[in-house]
Structure formats: C-alpha cells, structure tokens
Amino acid sequence: MGRRLFKELDRSYGFDEVAIVPGEVTINPEMTSTKMNLGKHSFDAPMMASAMDGAVSPRFAVLMHEMGGLGVLNAEGLYTRYEDPYSVLEEITSMPQAEVTQYLQRVYSEPIKEYLVGTRVEEIKKSGAVCAVSFTPQNTKRMSPMAVEAGADLVFVQSTVTTARHMSRSYKGLIFSELINSLNVPVIVGNCVTYNVAMELMETGIEGILVGVGPGAACTTREVTGVGVPQVTATLECAAAREDYFHRTGRYVTVITDGGIRTGGDVCKSLASGADGVMLGTPFAQAEESPGRGFNWGMANANPDLPRGTRIKVGTVGSLKQIMYGPTSVTNGTQNLVGALRVAMGMCGAYTVRDFHKAEMVVAPAIKTEGKFFQHAD
C-alpha cells in the first residue's frame, strides 16, 4: 500500500521566497501612477498606516493624508478610552518589557467613551483629511454610526480572522450588507487569506478587503494559535477572488496586503501579487512623528485572556516623508517606499498598479542571499 497522508499540504510563499521578473518593455519611474482607489476616494500613495495605537493618532492620520496616503485610527483604542491618551502612551513606551503586557491589559480595560469617537473623527476632519476609523465586528454596528455622523469617510471592520459567516452565542453576527446600506460610506473588511472567504466577503458589497493573518512584526497570532498563511500566497488567493468577482459583476473591490511588510521590495511584491495597496504598521511606527515613540504593539496585545501581540522596540529611523518618499541614504529598502515602487513598476513596464498586477513572478528562495556574501559576512 502506498504512503498516504492524513492531510495534503499546499506550498505557500512569503515575501522572501519570490521575485518579480522584469518586463520586456521598461519605462521611466516618473511615468508611473501609484494611485489607489477606495470607493470614491483616491490616494496618490497606495499605502495605509495600520489602526495600531503606536502607529496612528489623529495627528498622524492627518500627516498621512498630507503625504498622499491614509492613516486608519483604531476607534477602540487609547484615543477613545482616554481624554488624554498621550500620557498613557508615555507610560507604555517607558514601561519595562517584563511589565508592559500586564500594563496594557489594565489600560485597555478602561471602557470606551463613545463621545470620544466623534471627537477624534472631528480632530482629523477639521484639517480636511480623509478620515478612516477601525472597529472590531462586535462593536461595529453600535459605534460606527457615531463615527460616520461625526464625518468619518471610511469604516474598517477588523479582527484577526473575519468571515461573512460568523457563529456566536453571545452576539448576533454582523451582516455586512445591512451595515453598508445603513452607513452609506465605503466599508473595508479584514482580515482574510483565502479565495472562498474573500469571495463571500466581496459578495456582501464591501469596497475593500484586508489580507493577512499574523504576519505583523508586533503580532504573535501565528506563535500562539498556529494560524496564518504567508502573505504572497494569501494575496494571490484574494486577488484571484477579486478578479473573478470583477469579471462576473463589473464591480472592483480593492485588495490590501496588511502586515509583514518591511521594505520597498515587500511593497512591490504585494502589488505584483495582485494587491492594490498595502497596510503598514511597524514601518510607520518608526517615523519621527508616530505616537509610539519608537515602539509598536499588537492590537490583540491587551487581550485579558490570551494576548496575541507584543510590544516591540522599532526605533525611529526618519520622518514620515523620508519613509514614504525619501530622500534616503539607507540601502536596506526601508525608506522611500513609494520611490522603490515606481522603480519596480518602471522595470516591469507598468504604467499603473493594475498593469503591475500582470508582472511575472517566480519562486526564488535564494533571492535575498544570492551573490551577497560580503553583505552577510558580519
């Protein structure tokens, strides 16, 4: 009898295992367009700052808008629990590592003050910025109307794993089609990693989908639960669902690779895999203007029963403008992310992000080490 396995495993790929193949025609980088659309909103840079308290404050969301991107505010975080969240942030960033998780659990146990949801939205909107807020599924139905009434332009619904069909004894599952009809603003949902779930979510009428379970630098979901799919494969699956859904309905849903992105190369591989944009946490937490002061922590870090995140020291590497557009003197790809994307698009002859989706990719497990003996000699 031949060898038989209880489960057959598919091979999945992360950023370090693939490469983008240059095109047969090349163009100058300045001829490329990196625009990303979410509903009626258009962004020059296809980059979002994650709804993490160490990465996005109302002030940082405004700055992201000025840079052509989008900052998503965690509307269930410190900014809606405390009138003065910045003193709490100072405590978090000065706390010894051995004590910080317990401290986070304590400060995040402070109830959300619903009036602060509108207050924070108004802080962002008074500058003229596009305002995006993030809620967990269990609080979205109750709290998102407050945000929209105050002027929020986009609502993100985020949990570690989101599906269109959720079973619960404690609360009625969120019906996205009903939510979309009631809010009348674009709704972006995440996170997911498979074709079937992405397709079901798109069928509900959402405008965007977030791809990624557990790849973030501050996230420990994969260590704690063992659940996740490497980001290149996850993006390819969700982008395939997007294409099939678009060809069948004529409605285009924006795909956003969320998490695990460290360099311009990772940004480029995300978009070549079919993403329309990326969501970054830690790279933006490294900006001089970020609220985390060189630290970042996972959104599920403060869970009272099973923390699935950790505070990490990421340091401060430069201004947000340097990280997104340069100029930079670092050679590791962590700054001038938009410039790196334009160069890659030019190498592939891609005028637009949709053109870049057509770029060929190959499995290349030695892509970062081939010929780099002296770079790794230390």
How would you describe this structure to a colleague?
The chain is an alpha/beta fold and 378 residues long. It has one domain: Aldolase class I (TIM Barrel), CATH 3.20.20. It contains 14 helices and 14 strands. An eight-stranded parallel beta barrel has the order 4-5-6-7-8-9-10-11, surrounded by six helices. Helix 1 packs parallel to helix 4 and helix 10 packs across helix 13. The longest helix has 19 residues, at 231-249. It is globular. The model has no long low-confidence stretch (mean pLDDT 92).
Which terms would index this structure?
about 375 residues; TIM Barrel; 8-stranded parallel beta barrel; two-stranded antiparallel ribbon; about 35% helix
How would the blueprint of this fold be written?
Blueprint: E1 18-20, E2 36-38, E3 41-43, E4 47-49, H1 58-66, E5 70-74, H2 85-94, H3 97-107, H4 114-125, E6 132-135, H5 137-150, E7 154-158, H6 176-183, E8 187-192, H7 195-203, E9 208-211, H8 221-225, H9 231-249, E10 254-258, H10 264-272, E11 277-280, H11 282-285, E12 295-296, E13 312-313, H12 320-325, H13 337-347, H14 353-356, E14 361-363
Parallel strand pairs: 4-5, 4-11, 5-6, 6-7, 7-8, 8-9, 9-10, 10-11
Antiparallel strand pairs: 1-14, 2-3, 12-13
Helix pairs in contact: 1-4, 4-5, 7-9, 10-13
Uncertain segments of ≥5 residues (pLDDT<50)?
Answer: none
Overall pLDDT: 92
Strand runs, count: 14
- Supply the helix-strand structural class: alpha/beta
Q: What is the element string, with H for helices and E for strands? A: EEEEHEHHHEHEHEHEHHEHEHEEHHHE
The CATH superfamily name is Aldolase class I
Q: Helix count?
A: 14
CATH topology: TIM Barrel
What helical percentage do the residues reach? Answer: 25-40%
> How far from one another are the termini?
50 Å
Q: Report the C-alpha radius of gyration, rounded.
A: 20 Å
The order of strands across the largest sheet is: 4-5-6-7-8-9-10-11
Largest sheet: 8 strands, parallel, barrel
Global outline: globular
**CATH architectural name:** Alpha-Beta Barrel
Strand content: 5-15%
Name the CATH class. Answer: Alpha Beta
